[in-house]
Amino acid sequence: MFKFKSYYEHYMNIIGPIGNLMFYFQFYKIFDEKSSASVSLTGFSISVIAMTSWLLYGILLKNKPLIIANLVGTIGAILVTVAILIY
């Protein structure tokens, strides 16, 4: 069982950040189109709070997959929120 947990943790170190790449795609689309008309500022503001909360929780637990995935997500959500405010 321990071996499976170890392998799964390595898997999550990869899949967690990949799952949060959607923020970066949204960020790119806003800047490419120079419009955030179809994107919710409220929704992404909530995402920033949620991702930051999960990041802090991962830090408290010293859980590397949570830290990596939510660091990627937090930065991405902040970038999208800033892009929405600009456009």
Structure description:
With 87 residues, this protein is mainly alpha-helical. It has one domain: Up-down Bundle (Monooxygenase), CATH 1.20.1280.290. Helix content is 85%, strand content 0%. The protein has four helices and no strands. It has helices at residues 2-19, 22-33, 41-61, 64-86. Helix 1 runs parallel beside helix 4 (64-86), helix 2 (22-33) packs parallel to helix 4 and helix 3 (41-61) packs antiparallel against helix 4 (64-86). It is elongated, with a radius of gyration of 15 Å. The chain starts with a helix and ends with a helix. The model has no long low-confidence stretch (mean pLDDT 93).
Strand content: under 5%
Number of domains: 1
Helix fraction by DSSP (H/I, runs of at least 4): over 70%
**How many whole angstroms does the radius of gyration measure?**
15 Å
Q: What string, H for helix and E for strand, traces the elements in order? A: HHHH
* Unreliably modeled segments: none
Shape: elongated
Content-based structural category: mainly alpha
**Which fold name is given in CATH as the topology?**
Monooxygenase
What would you say the CATH architecture is? Answer: Up-down Bundle
What is the level 1 CATH name? Answer: Mainly Alpha
Mean pLDDT: 93
Continuous helix count: 4
| Distance between the amino and carboxyl termini | 50 Å
Main beta sheet strand tally, sense and closure: none
- Tally of extended strands? 0
